[in-house]
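Priority: medium. Attachment 1 of 2:
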């Protein structure tokens, strides 16, 4: 029986589709079963993005340029993200996952620099997690990028650490209000969060290849994120009228 394989472009395309479905459901749908199903599918996006950032760290010829590009798009994406998700522009509002991904790459660059003392690398990782705290996927994305990059070549450890981080930190912070009584079962709306684990079979299917290389595809993966958020916001304004 032939094993199922996915290359980098295919994984990124799945992430784009999942992200679009997730954000559209968040913007347009009221709380209910359909929204929970679509947002569960949308949880695929963040783990795949973090995995691809770690792969990019190993494949890029210029890591500083790669980091700079992510930071630029984090700035570009801030306004469309805050408008679509919060309905207003605030420079201090929680920002998009692009910021978390950029800090994840920076953290990976720090911890993989063997000439730095271990303590400095640990402090660097901690600082990146702190700086990502208010961003979408916050320090979870930073830790995922680092774990995928650190254990590259060992899929079992990549998936194990990914699952532990997801279970302990992400599930912990999402379900903590329910566990201590800040939320009740009736008004708790984060039941879709375990959808992150749907990414595991896809990540295990990654074959290590890039897929067809083209400048269009490379640029698409950067520009699509702020563009689709802007479109969702404009559609929400039209529907409101």
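Attachment 2 of 2:
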């Amino acid at each position: 029986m032939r094993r199922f394989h996915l290359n980098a472009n295919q994984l990124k395309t799945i992430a784009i589709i999942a992200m679009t479905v997730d954000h559209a459901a968040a913007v347009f749908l009221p709380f209910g079963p359909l929204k929970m199903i679509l947002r569960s599918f949308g949880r695929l996006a963040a783990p795949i993005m973090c995995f691809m950032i770690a792969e990019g760290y190993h494949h890029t010829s210029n890591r500083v340029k790669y980091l700079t590009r992510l930071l630029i798009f984090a700035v570009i994406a801030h306004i469309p993200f805050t408008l679509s998700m919060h309905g207003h522009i605030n420079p201090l509002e929680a920002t998009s996952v692009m910021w978390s991904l950029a800090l994840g790459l920076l953290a990976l660059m720090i911890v993989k620099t063997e000439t730095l003392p271990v303590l400095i690398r640990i402090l660097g990782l901690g600082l990146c997690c702190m700086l990502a705290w208010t961003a979408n996927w916050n320090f979870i994305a930073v830790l995922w990028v680092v774990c995928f990059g650190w254990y590259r070549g060992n899929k079992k450890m990549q998936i194990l650490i990914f699952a532990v981080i997801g279970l302990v930190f992400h599930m912990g912070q999402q379900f903590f209000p329910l566990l201590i009584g800040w939320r009740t079962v009736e008004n708790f709306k984060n039941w879709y969060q375990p959808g992150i684990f749907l990414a595991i079979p896809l990540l295990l299917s990654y074959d290590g290849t890039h897929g067809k290389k083209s400048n269009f595809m490379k640029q698409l993966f950067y520009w699509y994120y702020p563009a689709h958020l802007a479109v969702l916001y404009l559609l929400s304004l039209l529907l409101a009228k």
